[in-house]
Design brief:
Number of helices of chain A: 33
Radius of gyration of chain A: 29 Å
Helix content of chain A: 25-40%
Distance between the termini of chain B: 107 Å
Helix content of chain B: 25-40%
CATH class of one domain in chain B: Alpha Beta
Order of helices and strands of chain B: HHEHEEHEEHHEH
Oligomer: heterodimer
CATH class of one domain in chain A: Alpha Beta
Mean pLDDT of chain B: 83
Number of strands of chain B: 6
Strand order of the largest sheet of chain B: 2-3-5
Radius of gyration of chain B: 28 Å
Structural class of chain A: alpha/beta
Largest sheet of chain B: 3 strands, antiparallel
Number of helices of chain B: 7
Structural class of chain B: alpha+beta
Shape of chain A: globular
CATH architecture of one domain in chain A: 3-Layer(aba) Sandwich
Mean pLDDT of chain A: 91
Bound molecules: iron/sulfur cluster, FE2/S2 (inorganic) cluster
CATH architecture of one domain in chain B: 2-Layer Sandwich
Number of strands of chain A: 37
CATH topology of one domain in chain B: Alpha-Beta Plaits
Low-confidence stretches of chain A: 1-6
Distance between the termini of chain A: 61 Å
Low-confidence stretches of chain B: 165-171, 181-190
Strand content of chain A: 15-25%
Amino acid sequence: MTTATKVGTITVTINGETIGVPKGTRIIQAAQLLGIEIPTFCYHPRMRPQAACRICTVEVVKPMNKMFMACATEIMDGMEVLTDSPRTLADRRTNLDLLLTQHPLDCPVCDKGGECKLQDYSVKYGSSENPFETKRKDYPEDIRSTVLDFNSNRCILCGACIQVCSDIQQLSAIGFSKRGFITVVGAPMGEPLDCEFCGQCMDVCPVGAITSRFSKYKFRPWQEEKTQTTCTYCGCGCQYNLRTMDGEVSRVTPIEGVGPGQGSLCVRGHFGFHFMEDAQRLTKPLVRRGDKLVEAGWDEALAEAAKGLAAAKAAKGGAGIAGIAGGRLANEDLYLFGRLMRNALESPNFDSTLRYGYINAATIMHKALGVTGMMNSFDDLRRADAVLLVGSDITQEAPICGLAVKDGITKRKMPVFTVDSMKTEIMKLGAGRLVITPGSEVAAIKGLVKAVVDEGLIDAGVAAKYPAAVAAIKKEMAGTYKEIETPTGATKADLVAMARAFANADKGIILAGPRVMGGLKGASALAMLIDLAFLTGNLKPGAGVNPLTGENNELGLVLAGAAPELLPGGLPWSDGAARARVEQAWNCALPEFPGNSLTDLFDGMREGRIGAAYIAGTDPVRSLPAELNVAASLDALDFLVVQDLFLTGTALRADVVFPAQSYAERDGTFTNMEGRVQRIRQAMKAPGKARPDWQIFSAVARELEVPLEYAGTDEIRAEAAGLIPQFAALDVTNAGHGVDVTAALEAYLAGAYLKTMDDRYDLPAVLNTASPHETRLYLADSLFHSGQMSTHNWGLMKIDPADELVMNPREARKLQIAEGDKVRVTSLLGSAVVPVKLSSHANPGTVLFPKHCAQSHVRDLMGVVVGSREEGSVPQFRFERVTVEKVH
Amino acid sequence: MGLIRSIFMTELLMGMKLVFKQMFKPYCTLQYPHVRHDIPDGYRGLMSLLRYEDGSERCVGCSLCEAACPSNCIKVVSDEVPGQPLVRYAREYYLDITRCVFCGFCTEACPVDALAMTKVYEASVFDRRDLMFDKRKLYELGEQHLADGKAYLIAHNMDDGTLFPKEGLGDNRYSFPPVDLGEGERPVTVGLTREALEMELSKQ
Ligand code: SF4
Ligand code: SF4
Ligand code: SF4
Ligand code: SF4
Ligand code: SF4
Ligand code: FES
């Protein structure tokens, strides 16, 4: 049912106060609107009522006099409710007395003490004498899982944890076992819990039955300081409270109803809070003396950096300097880095980790639809009629966006269609799936477009309004299904069924993951998805096409223009008017032509065209495979400045290393994948002399005698907002009130659209056919990791050591490989030895390795193919053919 | 009049009368430090931390004393005992005696009778810093003045004879359930906005 049919105002009177509410509102919700507190244990604002705990009893006096559960009772027009009548209070007291007959009252040693609902309600509503016979439970506490401890003695059997895991997280990893007095909560069959460790069960538990091993006994809620901040791990941009005690992080707590996640967090955000305090953090600037990096003062290091950069500029011109930014820097840092490179150093060579794939999303989305980032918000996703997810293991890569999709599945039975080369968790829950050959995403998308065209599923309005464009697409679809079936392994019937179901939905949302944008024809693939949405009439508010980001601030990179073909605001470099605006704002002249992209920059370093580089917030040496010769390129430089949290592989090669501050030690903003600009706030002191990135850029500029001086990040953002209007408002999504893309779309269709059609629908050659190796190795994203930040977390490393090759169990059996065995993985480029983990996530014929594992050499086995300029010059290295054999 | 008084030294006589009266009363001054007062059991002297009879620390690091202290002079750093899962203790414990107002609230807050006030009142030192008591110092005081600590707790009715029997330090320890090793925000009712409510209803 949509809002329109449901809404209709009815009135309810609670404790004498009357309020009008929409039909379907429950008593508890009306009470909250009025600010009246009703105690609850099992109620959760985002879950179906289960009416298990009965603490929320209220007295209804009209239309009938009866006791009702406030959390589960829908309001009838004219209802009168009393929430603290003597009858209600007596019922509550009895309820609490009964709970306390077996509760251990461990409060002094219970981590919930001080924020426990049972404590609070006992004080407020309980009696001091318990009329019932009491018997303390003494069941062993289960501390076998890596993160969560279960103390069933304290459990009041409200079932909230089980419900959050089954309805919101949709894993059903925990449940009750045994019955009655000895009921225990935990993983089924008495096994140790091994789940995604999102920690939401702990968050919803009203008592101390589920607690965190990582914060065990380390805090009392009243001793902590809490700082609302934005998670720094992925593009979802969840909000949480970082809680600190005496300058150390004690834990992370979600904020119900706030931010993109509405109070849900994933394991990285919830338990990955140790990297800031890692002993390996850089604390002082380092400068090169001979072949050693030695500690230095800031003045010395800054002067040296400025000298090196100025020398390169004098020798080779501005274009002889390269700047590379990582998507973990804050918006303000990125804007200032761009200004330092383009204004102070006069270099056009400013690129970033956008080049790993998202650059295609940045250019195509802007060109075709005039938007930066997603067309829809997570709320749109929760309310869509159908979702098509291509090339993303969403629950691992963007877990909270995945939860928005899951929310639609649970609450509205929303059909989700998945096209991917590995078996993902969301596939199991979805309405339809295509498991395709790795690297054949483009063909599969073409197949879907073809099915829409061939089966006459084109939206009538679109066909009538844009006949030329529709005819051009139709023409491209003349080929046979064979062309699609061979590379993908999907059948015509599957494609047609999926296309039909998706096209029939009113509001269909397409989500495109990194395997779409990061492929060889990434830009075309995304353009095809836009065509698909266009043909099915889905380019309208509430529906649309959405690229998913990898790093947390990739959209910030786009908005700061951190790629040679982009300008601040995410506008194309070719936009003359926009260039003029930047020139005016910065009072400088920008070069006519865009600079080189990442792989060209590395070539340029080896060829001597580039003399110096400034790399901040990213580690290309460890994140790109050996075939790209990144290390040799950096070694060929005359001068290298690196700015990071840790002494990375890249930093080891630097002439000057600046220690940066982490997100918890400074202020600023990140932009999430929906386009929300959200604050990070200082919660603790930085180690040693580390400084925030923007201050370092500013200090380098000062040394270069191009002063870029600001009092703080707010001042930088205020200046940047002149060029980047998105920075002006905080906490609003792109799609806040529905984006209308009609104007941009029409301009797109009227432009070079028809001419580029041929190239777009040409299928790319199948990768690495020359290799004699048979098994396909794929670098996959991991839920538990996202690069050096997560691998410097002892907590996350304990949950997932991150260096295992994932194999299909059946296939492993054939090769007589057992879990934990060591195998040798060989490709044309060499071999590496790694331990094996068995999981059906890997299809037969495919093995997976975590993309973010920096320690192992598996990444160096990957062959690299760099996409064409039109396709974003993306270095594609996620697939390789290998042979896996057991090491004896 | 004045002259007559001076001549007859009446003032002197009145004074001597008082002197003679006092001569036959018992002394009330003591030869401190050679002789000392008997201190009553409820006396609130320097704070101490007590141990169980087997030598283990009573304090479970619950921080309730810290919360109860009106002058904010207690700091408890709690943790899990290394190598003993689920056993909670105070890894560090500080009490700034210079700020303590000797109210005894902390001892009353303590759920395990770990804190007791001794009869020590001689707190003067040559270095102020010595008055910042840490965990070691507090346990030392507890060991030296165990009997006083016990007496204090009994005098203040902090035991009912079962948890803390008079004949010795009882077994008022937190019973941790056995460990099975085998193989937000404050979640009070969330403020709901009308927008969020409509969003939630629209999804059903
Ligand atoms: S769950 Fe609450 S009432 Fe129970 S021991 Fe813990 S703090 Fe006390
Ligand atoms: S941590 Fe998350 S996935 Fe694991 S049991 Fe709890 S709710 Fe389920
Ligand atoms: S563990 Fe907590 S949330 Fe789960 S049933 Fe028990 S009391 Fe409820
Ligand atoms: S989903 Fe992303 S932003 Fe949210 S908690 Fe997890 S890693 Fe952080
Ligand atoms: S002394 Fe008592 S009240 Fe203070 S932390 Fe220790 S156990 Fe808790
Ligand atoms: S909150 Fe209503 S029954 Fe639990």
